[in-house]
Every structure is written in C-alpha cells, then in structure tokens.
Amino acid sequence: xxxxxxxxxxxxxxxxxxxxxxxxxxxxxxxxxxxxxxxxxxxxxxxxxxxxxxxxxxxxxxxxxxxxxxxxxxxxxx
Length: 78
Known about the structure:
Structural class: mainly beta
Helix content: under 10%
Distance between the termini: 22 Å
Shape: globular
C-alpha cells in the first residue's frame, strides 16, 4: 500500500489518466474528487458488487475485452 500526505487541491495521478484530488478536510473526514475516463468503473469500497439490468458492459478501445460495468447513464456518483 502506498501512503501519501497530500494538501488540499493536491492531486495523485494514476496510470497517467486518473486524478485523485483532495478537495477538503473537516475533522476526520476527507473529501476527494476523482477524474477518470468514462470507461473506468469507480465504486465506493463499502458498497457490495451488484449486477442488475441497469448496468451495461463497456468495451474500451484501449483494452482488449470487456471492462467493468458502469451505470447506463455513464456516470457514477459517490
């Protein structure tokens, strides 16, 4: 596990196209923002994996095969 100290508005870049930015800190709570391509599936860790009719599979031009499902609207919210 990589452990970093970041300040508000600092960004950690993952794989050259995913940015995790610290938006704010209040007490023990940290707000982060994640900027990623639409084909990248982002899921909060405390939520169980689910499969239902509202999810669709997306094929990425950058990868062979199918990537994880994302909501039909194409966006995820945490």
